[in-house]
Amino acid sequence: MAQDEGERTEVRQQPEDEPGSGVVSAFGKQLKLLRVRAGLERTEFGKRVGYAPQSVASFEQGRRIPQARFIDRADEVLDAGGVLKALKEEVARAQYPAFFRDAARLEAGAAELFLYAVQAVPGLLQTEEYTRALLAMRRPLLNEDTIEQRVASRLSRQEIFNRWPAPLMSFVIEEAVLRKPYGGTECLRGVLEQILLVGHKRNVEIQVMPNDREDNAGVDGPFTLISRSDGDQVAYLEVQGRSILLIDRQEVRSIAARYGIIRSQALTPRESLGFIEKLLGEL
C-alpha cells in the first residue's frame, strides 16, 4: 500500500448513507421517478420485480437499503438504461455502518483473516437471532429498519465461506464470550452450534482462550488481521463506534506477532471444538 511509514487510517462513524439519508435517499428518489415515469403503481411494480409493495415503498423512502438483485431487476423492469445499476456499488457500501465500510471491503477480498474476540461472537460466526439480539441492546436504541438492515448486511458477510479460492481463517474467542447468554439460552445454543459447524470447515480454525489462563497476550483488546492476495496486511481495531485501520508495517507486524502468541496460549482447534461441545451440553 502506498502510504507513508507510520501513517494510520482512522475511520469514524458518520451519519451519511445510513437509511434515510445520503446515497440511499438519492437512490430511492431516483427509483420513484423512474417508476412513475413508467406508469407503474407500487403493487404492479412490486409484482414484476418480486417484492412486496411495502418493500418498494421502504426503498423509495430511503428507509431500507435494497440488495443488488433488486437493483438489477428494477433497472431492467423500468428500462433505466443502467442508471440504477450505476449506483449499486455505492448502495452496497451503505449497508454497513460508516465506521466499518473500509474493513468490510478488505474482509470480502481477504486471502487470510485472523480475528481475536473478547466482547461478542464475531459477526462472521453469528446467527440471525444472535445478531438481532446484540443490535437490540445497542444504546442509543436503533430503529427497527436499521436493525433489520444491519442483520441482513452482517449475514451477507458470511458469503465469504462460500468463496473460492477459500481464504484461510482463524478465530480465537475468549471463553467468557461463549458463556454470555445474549438473547437467551436458545440464542446462545444456536450460535454455539453455528461455531461448531463453521469450525469443521477445512479453511477455518477456531480456538478458545480459557478463563483460567494465567498468561494472555490479548490483554490490549480485540483486533482483526486482514491479509490481501498481494501480501499486504492491515490490522482493524474497533471500539465504541470508532475504528482504526492500521497500515504501518511495524505496528501490523507487532499485532501479528501478538496473535501468534495468543494462538499458542489458547486451546488447540480440536480441543476448542470439544470445549464448545461441552458448553452446549451444559445448556
Question: Can you summarize this structure?
Answer:
The chain is built from twelve helices and seven strands. The protein is of the alpha/beta class. It is elongated and about 70 Å long.
Low-confidence sequence ranges: 1-17
Strand count, sense and closure of the main sheet?
A: 7 strands, mixed
Structural class: alpha/beta
Oligomeric composition of the shown chains: single chain
Descriptive account of the structure:
By secondary structure, the chain is of the alpha/beta class. It is built from twelve helices and seven strands. It has helices at 22-37, 42-49, 53-60, 68-77, 88-93, 101-108, 128-136, 144-156, 175-179, 185-199, 249-265, 269-282; strands at 8-12, 112-117, 168-174, 204-209, 223-227, 233-239, 242-246. It has a seven-stranded mixed beta sheet, with helices on both faces. It is elongated. The termini are far apart. Residues 1-17 have low confidence and may be disordered.
Write the layout of secondary structure elements.
Blueprint: E1 8-12, H1 22-37, H2 42-49, H3 53-60, H4 68-77, H5 88-93, H6 101-108, E2 112-117, H7 128-136, H8 144-156, E3 168-174, H9 175-179, H10 185-199, E4 204-209, E5 223-227, E6 233-239, E7 242-246, H11 249-265, H12 269-282
Parallel strand pairs: 2-3, 3-4
Antiparallel strand pairs: 1-7, 2-5, 5-6, 6-7
